[in-house]
């Protein structure tokens, strides 16, 4: 554990104040006595925990800075993970050895696969989660992660140094400055220390210990406790933590404001202070800042609800786990908790419409979530309609119910009145009112697909700071940011997931090329290749890359993915090799309507495509050699899915290869679109390209306003640049990835 006693002085570097107006400047990348890490992660939410764990898995000495250790893993809004599109992200996070999927399998109280009426490509794995259990399990995971230290504290500023040559960016981040007022409160505490992993607050120390002129850290080996007590001599002089890479996962804390009715309070969430200084630093550095809003429903006492008159939803049997390494979840289906469905009515509409003048959150110009709107927004946008309200349990031993779909920011007394108008809630007691949160976000077109910023080298953004909403979207970005921050330290190429490889790639590509003016949420409809990007095959798409290119995947997970891949290939090969006449198949499986008009032999793989046929039924008809493929339920299900999509996947694979050829055409990192003369581009297109800085021709083609003609001219520029580089290198040119001009004229 580092000592905070020695705090080095910052020496102003010869950087232009005009370009770097606010952040701390340093010509000394590691001041004597100040702590130094490979990666520092700011924020302990869903993005921050995944980022810190991913960086540590990649081998980087990592520091996770959070306001309070006891809020790590806190589910600030809904008590659930997954859903349509979001379940895909959960599987991909798990394929890269992320945490949240495994934690959900240990903490859920109701597991359900949504969209079952449609094909498996768009199934949505979802689970209601026990808030308390999830937080406990996540904290246990984080505090036991090798190479990861957890520190309580608030970040007020960034430390900047001269930029690295050969990389875009006006400067480089080399650490963070902690808020001393926050540290003063944190360090006046008794901490339980975890050697090599950090410490967590337990109880305040005696008052006498809180009076000291400087930091005083003592580690008692026998009791294994670490005591920190201090009074900073100058609250304006923060403590520095130096780092090779910094990841900001600030959530809704950047100049966050909580709103209930007409009352507003500075807060990142209810009860937590916002981050003001860091928001000002980012804005003065030149980042384009926007404003978004979100909200959360009131919480209702469970015993005050009449569930007997409501529609009941039971969990799936068997339950499908999120993680590939788990065969089942921690709790049996019969022990899981049900959810219940009720609806709003005209009385609810009347209360909302009559009291809009008492609701400042609705009047705000900041954009709210389109696909998870407040009940006020739904009533205004869809008048005279009934809206669903799902009553979801918050935990096995929790007395609270979360009314999903009832996000509201009316004054508390009106919220209670509104609740009483809803069927089943006529006698309900509101325990906590709903509230809105307004916060700053950074335009995501200012980051690379690696999530590193254009303006500041080695500074990464992940989560709601990039304009997304939802635990899953934040966690997915956290994994990518953590991996790439670690790779940046070791000077290795970034780990990029393209939109042909995963929903993570679709999300990041959407954000970095198109930006967002409202909270971004993942849906299956956003992916062009959703038949290939299914929940069941996320491991085959990402686990091997994560293991070989990033080092973020464990050997155990890699071995399991390799076994599954080889088993699938073997199983498909066997199914293709088994051929009988259609009449014989009809005799073997009489309950299935197999056409006997076909003269050619029918493969077992083709029989498996019938909706009524699964591997169990097929193995009964042909025990040898198919029986062994039914011993693993997941393998049997995946063979069925592979068979169902066999023909369409061949066509989609050709489309994917076309997109991948576009993605192979790299644009120069240091290309100055505003001044380059070798390419004919309009001023408007130049500005859009300069702001988004696409890495490839494919990414450039997806930027709104970049015309097909501009893409053709960029293609010419790339080809000419490659030819010049080839001549300089003295090696033969290869044009295997270049498209013809005619292809781009079709765009």
From TrEMBL:
Question: Per the record, which residues fall in region Disordered?
Answer: 725-747
Q: Which family does it belong to?
A: Belongs to the MnmG family.
User: Which InterPro entries does the entry link to?
Assistant: FAD/NAD-bd_sf, GIDA_C_N, MnmG, MnmG-rel, MnmG-rel_CS, MnmG_C, MnmG_C_subdom, MnmG_C_subdom_sf
Cited function: Component of the GTPBP3-MTO1 complex that catalyzes the 5-taurinomethyluridine (taum(5)U) modification at the 34th wobble position (U34) of mitochondrial tRNAs (mt-tRNAs), which plays a role in mt-tRNA decoding and mitochondrial translation. Taum(5)U formation on mammalian mt-tRNA requires the presence of both GTPBP3-mediated GTPase activity and MTO1 catalytic activity.
Q: Which reaction does it catalyse?
A: 5,10-methylenetetrahydrofolate + uridine(34) in tRNA + taurine + GTP + A + H2O = 5-taurinomethyluridine(34) in tRNA + 7,8-dihydrofolate + GDP + AH2 + phosphate + H(+)
Protein name in the entry: 5-taurinomethyluridine-[tRNA] synthase subunit MTO1, mitochondrial
What does this protein need as cofactor?
FAD
Q: Where is the composition biased (Polar residues)?
A: 725-735
The record's section on Pfam families has:
GIDA (PF01134), GIDA_C_1st (PF21680), SAM_GIDA_C (PF13932)
Quaternary structure per UniProt?
Homodimer; forms a dimer in the presence of potassium. Interacts with GTPBP3; forms the GTPBP3-MTO1 complex composed of homodimers of GTPBP3 and MTO1.
Q: Which residues form the tRNA uridine 5-carboxymethylaminomethyl modification enzyme C-terminal subdomain domain?
A: 643-716
Gene that encodes the chain: Mto1
Q: Which GO terms describe its cellular component?
A: cytosol; mitochondrion
Can you tell me which residues the record assigns to a coiled coil? none
- The transmembrane segments are none
Keywords attached to this Swiss-Prot or TrEMBL record, sorted alphabetically, are: FAD, Flavoprotein
Q: Name one GO biological process term.
A: tRNA methylation
Which NCBIfam families does this UniProt record tie to the protein? mnmG_gidA (TIGR00136)
GO molecular-function terms, A-Z: flavin adenine dinucleotide binding
């Amino acid at each position: 554990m580092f000592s905070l006693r020695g705090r080095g002085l910052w020496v102003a570097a010869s950087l232009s104040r005009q370009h770097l107006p606010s952040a701390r400047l340093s010509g000394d990348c590691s001041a004597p006595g100040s702590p130094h890490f490979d990666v520092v992660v700011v924020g302990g939410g869903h993005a921050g925990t995944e980022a810190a764990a991913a960086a540590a898995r990649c081998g980087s000495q990592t520091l996770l800075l959070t306001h309070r250790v006891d809020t790590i893993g806190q589910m600030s809004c809904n008590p659930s993970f997954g859903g349509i599109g979001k379940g895909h992200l959960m599987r991909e996070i798990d394929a890269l050895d992320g945490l949240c999927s495994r934690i959900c399998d240990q903490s859920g109280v109701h597991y359900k696969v949504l969209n079952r009426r449609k094909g498996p490509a768009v199934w949505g794995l979802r689970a209601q989660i026990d808030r308390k259990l999830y937080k406990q399990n996540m904290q246990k995971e984080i505090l036991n992660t090798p190479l990861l230290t957890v520190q309580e504290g608030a970040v007020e500023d960034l430390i900047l140094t001269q930029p690295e040559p050969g990389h875009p960016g006006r400067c480089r981040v080399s650490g963070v400055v902690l808020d001393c007022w926050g540290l003063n409160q944190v360090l006046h505490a008794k901490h339980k220390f975890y050697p090599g992993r950090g410490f967590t607050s337990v109880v305040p120390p005696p008052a006498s210990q809180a009076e000291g002129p400087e930091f005083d850290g003592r580690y008692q080996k026998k009791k294994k406790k670490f005591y920190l007590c201090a009074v900073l001599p100058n609250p304006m002089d923060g403590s520095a933590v130096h780092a090779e890479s910094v990841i900001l996962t600030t959530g809704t804390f950047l100049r966050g404001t909580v709103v209930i009715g007409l009352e507003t309070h500075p807060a990142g969430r209810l009860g937590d202070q916002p981050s003001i200084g860091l928001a000002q630093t980012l804005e003065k550095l030149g980042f384009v800042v926007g404003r978004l809003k979100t909200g959360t429903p009131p919480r209702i006492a469970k015993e005050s609800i009449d569930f007997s008159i409501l529609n009941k939803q039971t969990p799936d049997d068997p339950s499908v786990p999120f993680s590939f390494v788990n065969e089942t979840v921690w709790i049996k289906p019969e022990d899981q908790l049900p959810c219940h469905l009720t609806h709003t009515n005209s009385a609810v509409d009347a209360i909302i419409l009559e009291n809009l003048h008492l609701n400042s959150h609705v009047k705000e110009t900041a954009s709210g979530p389109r696909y998870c709107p407040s009940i006020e927004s739904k009533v205004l946008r869809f008048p005279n309609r009934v809206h669903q309200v799902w009553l979801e349990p918050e935990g096995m031993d929790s007395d609270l119910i979360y009314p999903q779909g009832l996000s509201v920011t009316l004054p508390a007394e009106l919220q209670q009145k509104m609740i009483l108008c809803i069927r089943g809630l006529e006698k309900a007691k509101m325990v906590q009112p709903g509230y809105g949160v307004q916060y700053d976000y950074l335009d995501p077109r200012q980051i690379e697909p690696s999530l590193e910023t254009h303006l500041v080298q080695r500074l990464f953004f992940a989560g709601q700071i990039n304009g997304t909403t939802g635990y899953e979207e934040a966690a997915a970005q956290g994994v990518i940011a953590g991996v790439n921050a670690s790779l940046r330290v070791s000077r290795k190429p970034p780990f990029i997931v393209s939109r042909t490889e995963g929903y993570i790639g679709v999300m990041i590509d959407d954000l970095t090329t198109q930006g967002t003016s409202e909270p971004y949420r993942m849906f299956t409809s956003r992916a062009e290749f959703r038949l290939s990007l299914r929940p069941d095959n996320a491991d085959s798409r990402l686990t091997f890359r994560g293991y070989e290119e990033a080092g973020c995947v464990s050997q155990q997970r890699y071995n399991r993915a390799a076994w599954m891949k080889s088993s699938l290939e073997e199983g498909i090969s066997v199914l293709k090799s088994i051929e009988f006449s259609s009449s014989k198949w009809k005799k073997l499986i009489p309950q299935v309507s197999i056409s006997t008009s076909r003269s050619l032999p029918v493969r077992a793989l083709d029989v498996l495509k019938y909706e009524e046929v699964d591997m169990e039924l097929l193995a009964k008809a042909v025990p040898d050699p198919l029986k062994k493929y039914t011993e693993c339920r997941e393998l049997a299900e995946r063979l069925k899915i592979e068979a169902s999509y066999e023909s369409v996947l061949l066509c989609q694979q050709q489309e994917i290869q076309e997109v991948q050829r576009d993605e192979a055409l790299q644009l120069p990192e240091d290309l100055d679109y505003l001044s380059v003369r070798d390419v004919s581009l309009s001023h408007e297109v130049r500005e859009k390209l300069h702001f988004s800085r696409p890495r490839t021709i494919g990414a450039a083609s997806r930027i709104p306003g970049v015309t097909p003609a501009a893409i053709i001219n960029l293609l010419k520029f790339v080809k000419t640049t490659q030819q010049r580089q080839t001549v300089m290198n003295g090696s033969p040119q290869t044009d295997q990835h270049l498209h013809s001009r005619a292809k781009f004229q079709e765009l």
